[in-house]
Amino acid sequence: MSEFLEVFGAKTHNLKNVRVKIPKHKLVTITGVSGSGKSSLAFDTVYAEGQRRYLESLSTYARMIVSSINDDTKVDEIRGLSPTISINQKTVSSNPRSTVGTITEIYDFYRLLFTTVGVPYCPEHPDVALKKDTVSSVTATALSAAPGEKLYLLSPLSKKAESAKFSEIANEVLEKGFVRFMIGDALCSVGDVEGPDLVP
Fold first, then answer.
1. Sheet holding 4-10, edge to edge
2. Angstrom distance (rounded) from CA 128 to CA 178
3. How far, in Å, are 38, 80, 82, 187, 197 from residue 1 at the CA level?
4. Beta bridge partners of 188
5. Are 15 and 45 in contact (CB under 8 A)?
6. Which residue, among 113, 21, 26, has the nearest Cα to 65 in the 3D structure?
7. What is residue 19's predicted lDDT score, i.e. its pLDDT?
8. Fewer CB within a 10 Å sphere, N or C end of the chain?
9. Domain of 48: which CATH number?
10. Domain boundary among 33, 60, 86
């Protein structure tokens, strides 16, 4: 991979067919008088083109999360450009819940990064990685069970069930057309008079 970022024929705003070669893996500062095109080169050319390429690699849903970008950059060619993010000067929000991540919108990129490459683990079983199951994977698991082996396909009840009495939970389960449910590790039935000790 090239050790330089090369821009050919940048014409955004005040830039007049500018050609520049910027070293990678370095802290580079662009200086100049007011109106010389510093921001046009950094944000409206290099960053805009990098973000456009980055968004093209994402799914349609992911593109909806990230803020929209401007029209195509006015540049002949950019070589050695990787997906980019930028932290621009912005008016500080008065919202007490705002952070550096939300103000600069870098939080959106982190969220996409961790949902794409991150591996979540169960907080109660740190050795168990969580994954999304498909209909086919659930079906395959059910069909792989040994003859006579019992399987439980569970789904959470409504939020109000977390603080409900046992009889109220049993009635809700029955109304949904089921007769068995689990509270903690205990298997219960709608015909039971009372539930496990952890339920009031």
1. 18-23, 4-10, 77-79
2. 29
3. 26, 7, 10, 58, 63
4. 181
5. yes
6. 113
7. 92
8. N
9. 3.40.50.300
10. 86
